[in-house]
Amino acid sequence: MKRVMSVREHHGLRAKQKRSGASMNPIDLGILWGRLISLIDEATLVLAKTAFSITVTQVRDFSNALFDATGNMIGQPTQGLPAFIGALSTVVRSALRYIPAETIMPGDVLITNDPWIGTAQLNDIIVITPIFKRQRLVGYAASVAHAPDIGGRLLSGDSREVYEEGLKLPVMKLFEGGRVNDTLVNMIRANVRVPDIVLGDIIAQVTSDEFAGRRLLEVMADAGLDCLDEISSEIRRLSEDGVKRRIAELPLGTYSGECTTDGFDEDFLIKVTVTISKDTIALDFSGTTPQCPYGVNSTYNYSYAEAVFPVLCMLSPPSPINEGSLRPIQVSIPEGTVLNARFPAALGARAMVTMCIQSAVFQALAAAVPQRVLADSGTPPWLPTFSGVNQFGERFAEHVVLNGGLGARPSKDGVSVLSFPMSAGGWEVETWESEKPFVIEKKELWPDSAGSGRWRGGLGQHFRMRVLSDGPVTMAMRGDRGRNPPRGFLGGKAARHGRALLNGETELHLKRTITLAPASVLDLFLPGGGGFFPPHERDVALVLRDLEDGVVSPEAAWKDYRVQLEAARPDLAPDLAADPQAYREGRRAGKGDDK
Amino acid sequence: MQRTKRRSRYHLGVDVGGTFTDLVLYDPSSRKIKTCKLLTTPDDPSDAVINGIAQLLQPNGHLDEVDLVVHGTTLAANALIERKGAKTALVTTDGFRDVLETGSERRYELYDLHIDYPSPLVRRALRFGLHERILFDGSIWAPVDRQALQKIVEKITGFGIEAVAVCLMHSYMDPAHEQKVLAHLRARAPELPVSLSSQILPEIGEYARVSTTVANAYVQPLMRRYLEALSRRLHEQGYRRTLYVMASSGGTLTAKVAGDLPIRLLESGPAAGAHAVSLLARRLNRQNLLSFDMGGTTAKACVIRDGVLERTTELEAARLSRFKRGSGLIIRSPSVDIFEIGAGGGSIATVDAIGLLRVGPESAGAVPGPACYGSGGNAPTVTDSNLLLGYLDAESFLGGTMSLDVDAASRAIQERVAAPLGCSLVEAARGIYDVINQNMADAIAIYGAERGIDLRNFALVAFGGAGPVHAWQLAKRLRLREIIVPPAAGLLSAVGCITAPISFEFARSYKRELEAVDWEHVQAIYKEMESLTETLLREAGARTVRMARACDMRYRGQRYDVTVPLSGLKLSRKVIPQLVRRFKSAYLKRYGRDVPGVPPEVVTWRLTGVAGGLPTTLPKAPSQDRAVVASAAAARIGSRGVFFADANGFVTAPVYDRYSLAPGALLRGPAIIVERETTIVIPPGGRCHITPFHDAIIMLERQ
User: Coil, strand, or helix at residue B539?
Assistant: First the structure.
């Protein structure tokens, strides 16, 4: 029966717990842990369902987390934003430096958007709600959500200092003993372009935190717990051990990688050295470009989270992520670089650099574990922010989230139009149009946008939007990969670079704020992912299928996959080589077998 | 309407699963039932239905004695899982042909680089963008380009397309453009089934709408063919009324409506079972039940929490990754909140590449079936292992109408499991039993966790042919103590069919802040919906009709709603304060905090109509003609060796006949209770008593 048993060891957790000698038996701990995660997942749904902005309700640009009484992060939702989750891990402890735990009373709720405490952007508002069991503080529920506006210049890449980027909220009490802080609420209302939506989202954060708190008390009552300390340390210890065991399976060594991004006007270099030791992994970002005079900078917290993320992907940890899982991964980022900028650096387009950190890390890891990485993805997402007056005469301000394609994997194609390393998107065109003065004319796969290879990248997208309002609309463009396309790995080809066009002719800077006149048309082309392994190794059936589906043009297919096309389909070769238009017209799409 | 002289007597419930077809014949006057379970006939599922009817109505019954046939089927769901639907084309607004692929964008598994998504039901080459555009307010931005439409229609008719989905932007505001596409398609190909998104799901949100519309089109030809054939055959047998089909919501639809909206049948069979469990909850006065239905192909779970059956409108069909939310096809349709995994009696055991034992999700189905069926299957299955472990008996399976081949079961498990694993036959059989039980326990634990439910306070209701065989193991693994096995457990979904209310739900969008509502307009909306409901229910044979109004409300600017009952309110301006109170209280109950300073608004007005005068309680046990005996001992029909790991192997357990056990009878485990369609396993230490309604209630030993 040995082999049968090993099926259960697959849940590495239980096997491990038996050895731990903890006072709680492994089955009870497993159930309790599962309930902690599920209450956070529930809180996540509550936030999505009670919020107001498209950003929170549809794009899901937020995350929740649960902390013990000393501020250790013990759980995250199963579907949140990895970068928020990582960055949140220190947020409670940081906040408690400003408002000590002793001064926190039942009914208090803390709020801040300090980028150096939280997630490197004033629009990310953090709400921390203490949880009391009787009069005793037992933990915190926290959430971070992207506010559609925070005042200042529009959320953009061309501010020079964080002061321009809007209202900063130091760590303060939004509620005190259950009473809302009206002064603060009025200050926020007076400083943002869409006060009802911003405040509505903040109330939704409080609602979801409180929901998590109530559920936590139920769970503690069921389990007969008075505090979380022991459970918290047990969960974190087991998670840390799980990650360490995964690290121990890796080849020791030092590996380096880099990724070049568009920066603001000049390219940035992200440089990383990854050192795999017995049970730790260290990442050192020395050599990365110094901080920039525009808003394409990040703070340590947020860059840290984006650096840890690809390592966790590579390790595929055996338990849910918490602070314990993160402990064996050390991240060093020199101060004064774009990834660890000093106050008062502007930060509005920080995602345009931090989301490429994973490309540099995967490139380094490819040398150690090539089966556990992917080629460059068509990241970062493009996040143009728009503001003006809508069809109902109301002011609006919000960004759209547009994703490129996932990089090819060592054993399969990339996924088209997928959020990575974020997990945010899925907003509805119909909803956007019913509140904002635009008509979206196209949101479709962009053919030939991915890198070729034995496995090709996922496709990027072509987005076209026309301004319908009577007055002008401000657009703060935030995009990247305009000069530096996503690379292929191990012989796979690079994807196409992205483009932004105004009225079909003017190439736009990807990080500047401009004014769109009424009836302007904006075309955005987001790159796909890079390819993996050389194109001539691709199965010709896949090439033909892509051709029929029109995601690869005859010209591109002939250029990259000529060898196998000539061998397998000599009948097509003349058209593909000499007269692609004839191919397009001669072969009707869909003639192939529909499997 | 002319009334037949001879009184119609029976109601017939039919549940067609992947492996078995279950039928229940109900006599409303005596509240007694007759049952029949036989193998599903996958090539034409109506064969088994007709054969079953012939058996049930023997010797001289006619279908004209049946005045209601209600049918549950997994056909729609299976067509999506197995990708056996029609070759489907999609017509969308130009610029949006890829919404099926680009609509989701989020990752359901954050740290998995090898993440996969289901390939779209319509490949890109068959998705056509049409130049036309309606805006958010229903105004026309660009009219339909007739030439372009003509070209698309030509392509569609030239490609051997079997079904078409049409989903144009903002069509929920104005269906005119979709209607135009329909007209062109009709003119050219009158028989081609077309699903319009403005009819399937007239709601804002292009991704869910296109995904649901495409799925509807994809399964429609198959479902229509099937329902029409079944109706025809029933009529040939003398049935005079309409065939009804269980919807995922737990209500019923006419076969005609079901053929138009087959996507509403996604959870048809499971919903019937869930409905029966909700009646059981009422009868036993239980607040918290975990419903566990294990058949030949899949196991289904759902919960009754605080007395209410959990419901959802957000479904996912054909999940790629066994348990993961987000890995399936998005379907919006009102439904019982059901969790389904590929674990059934027919689940096939294999030893994988790295030497681990896996069971399911592939199933041997009805054909060829488990090895022990002796009908050509040679893959070892859960049923084969149950036979070797003594949980099932070779001679009394299905009341002895089907004998099981022990040698074939042994051979299959020996060759494909025991030999590769290097263990004994019994160890291999026990391994299969353990793995399938753990798979189900894990899946149900996740289902509970996703909904924040601590299942340990729940009693397990076990049914389906394999449910009561595995229930004690599942309960043990989930740390539940109590198992309830209702009468006719082996075919409870078919029982659910005959007790399901005939009901219709309607909804109209009319979004206004309360102060701005035109109440006369609301009254007109209800008048129209009510007369439609009344007509449909009367046509369906309802003697009385019950209507309930409700509306979906939110704080202005939110995107999700809370449903508020309108009962007892005479709709006019005067009810605004009451409506606000009801909304706030519902909102607070769900979320714990309201939103100050923002006015509430109504988004959707709903009406549910339910036919009265039809049975809404569970029928009595199929108390056969044999005498019910007072003591358990007298119901004992034999004994056999049954494997219990805790007892270190086979122990001799008494075997009882379920319907000879009188109410009040007490049994101690180890024991086996057999009924025609299933077998209840009571482990050592377990105690079982029989309630006045013939439920078997088993208490396991405290762990």
Answer: helix
Is the distance from CB of B484 to CB of B460 less than 8 angstroms?
A: yes
What is the residue-averaged pLDDT of chain A?
91
Q: What is the DSSP letter of A343?
A: T
In chain B, what residues touch A409 (CB-CB under 8 Å)?
Answer: 113-114
- Peptide bond before residue A380 is cis, with ω within 30 degrees of 0: yes
| Torsional class of A192: left (φ above 0), alpha (ψ -120 to 50), beta (otherwise) | beta
Q: Taking a C-beta distance cutoff of 8 angstroms, is the pair A396, B76 a contact?
A: no
Within 10 angstroms of residue B625's Cβ, the number of other Cβ atoms is 4
CB count within 10 Å of CB A187 equals 14
CA dist B47 and B97 (Å) reads 40
pTM equals: 0.91
Q: Taking a C-beta distance cutoff of 8 angstroms, is the pair A63, A42 a contact?
A: no
State the best of A2, A5, A6, A7 to mutate against chain B, taking most chain B CBs within 10 Å.
A7
Q: Do residues A571 and A582 touch, judged by C-beta distance below 8 A?
A: no
Read off the pLDDT of residues A234-287 as tens digits, 9 standing for 90 and up.
999 999 999 999 999 999 999 999 999 999 999 999 999 999 999 999 999 999
Nearest-angstrom CA–CA distance, A15 and A9: 6
CA A254 – CA A283 distance, rounded (Å): 10
Note the pLDDT of residue B93. 98
- Quick check: A51 contacting B, CB < 8 Å? yes
Of the candidates B314, B319, B248, B334, which has an alpha carbon nearest to the alpha carbon of residue B72? B248
Contact between A302 and A117 (Cβ < 8 Å): no
Give the up-direction half-sphere exposure of residue A219: CA atoms within 13 A in the CB hemisphere. Answer: 28
CB count within 10 Å of CB A581 equals: 10
Exposed, middle or buried, B530 (CB in 10 Å: 0-12/13-18/19+)?
middle
- How deeply is A472 buried, as exposed, middle or buried, from its count of CB atoms within 10 A (0-12, 13-18, 19+)? middle
Q: Give me the DSSP letters along A386-438.
A: EEEE-TTS-EEEEE--B--PPPPBTTBPPPSS---SS------HHHHHTTSSE
Interchain CB distance below 8 Å, A38 and B557: no
Confidence of residue B653 (pLDDT cuts 50, 70, 90): very high
Burial of B490 (0-12, 13-18, 19+ CB in 10 A): buried
Model pLDDT, residue A592: 41
Residue A147 CB partners (closer than 8 Å, separation 6+): A53, A55, A113, A123, A124, A125, A192, A198, A201, A202
Residue A286 · residue A204 · CB < 8 Å: no
Across the interface, do A52 and B557 touch by the CB < 8 Å criterion?
yes
Give the DSSP H or E segment for A581: helix A580-586
B321-353 pLDDT, tens per residue?
A: 656 778 899 999 989 999 888 889 999 999 877
